[in-house]
Amino acid sequence: MPIQPRTPPGTLELLPREQLVFQHMLDVIRRGYERFGFVPIETPVFELKDVLLTKSGGETEKQVYFVQSTGAIQQGHEADLALRFDLTVPLARYVAEHEHKLVFPFRRYQIQRVYRGERAQKGRFREFYQCDIDVIGKDKLDPAFDAELPAIIVRIFEELKVGDFTIHFSNRKVLLGLLADAGIEDAEKQKLVLREIDKFDKIGHDKVRMSLLELGLDAAMTDNLLRLIGHTGSKEDVLADLRAHKATHPIFRQGLAELAQMVDMLKALGVPEKRVRLNLKIARGLDYYTATVYETLIDAHPEFGSVCSGGRYDDLAGLYTKSKLPGVGLSIGLTRLFDQLRASNLLPNVPNSVQVLITQMDPTLSGAYLALASELRHAGFNVENYLEPAKLDKQLKYADRSGIPFVILLGSDEKAKGTVIVKDLAAKAQFEVTPAALIEKLRTLLPQPG
Are 190 and 280 contacting, i.e. CB atoms less than 8 angstroms apart? Predict the structure, then answer.
């Protein structure tokens, strides 16, 4: 009885046409990162357990896949390796380990799969791609870098053609300064308040207000805070409202100055006004973010949640080195984004990577078919030879189903005339051309090589 073939739950396995779209999205992201001067790194799919789990503690360990050989299991050894669950912890280890060989600010991107033991369900993956970008400083990192990252994401998402989107950003120092100014300086209580504020768009004003009152904020402070974070005006309007506030705590003033600098730099970078919004409700639940935070929403599909998030952190690798390594970063969860776009019929139209199929009309001309393919490949085209004898109708159907746009026919008649026939399947048209003119003709019909 054959074993039933089946894909493990929580993974994304695609047919070739969809894989081409996914690969196109990866390529757009990679090019976008490199266009702004970022360099790639890769880290092993697994890390030493004591290194990987030091930062995250026991809660994350519940979702970690441990790696162990059969020999180690038979000998009763505990696993000492674990699959990475994000790219942040490996980056921290990487920078701490190679600190003296790296040039700072260290501008890196990393596009790799990560693994989490999630319960398999729609929209949740156990294996998925993250596309991370970070700038790491040595001892300090100017807030100017915080504005550059949204500019990169805008370029990428516009090229991906995902529809209208908005990058929402804020600065946690503003909210922390407001709390401190009101006498709430306990760090743990501040974290709890920020976590409730971050839920605003999910649970609404009234439930957040109730939660803040339960945390001990008085009604006046709560209402004033909710009024500020509920501001829906332009970036300049939000800044004006914050400047008019009477808070004097230095953390608040610092956060406000950083927000103002970021708004000015976004303009200088040419980021369209509609693509970025100053939204004080964005606080991010992860406590290691210390200042700027980002979330990216597809405007017509808020149900997608944030498709690109991140922020600034004071010390990336404090558990691995005594050096202070502040940074700022963003991450695109590509597997989840692709799955959501596919479910909503929003995937971009990506042509087959094969541009030309050379049919086999006469087995005695097989040498001519191979030579023609070689000539076209040297000119920069992606060409496939149909290598087995078959009826022409079958070969044409193969090209059509595969999404190959052009088919070349060369039979004995064409050979005698010194021509080839080119079929444009999309236009349902054909033309006859000499082999010498074929390359230039195809260049007018297809994207230029390179």
Answer: no
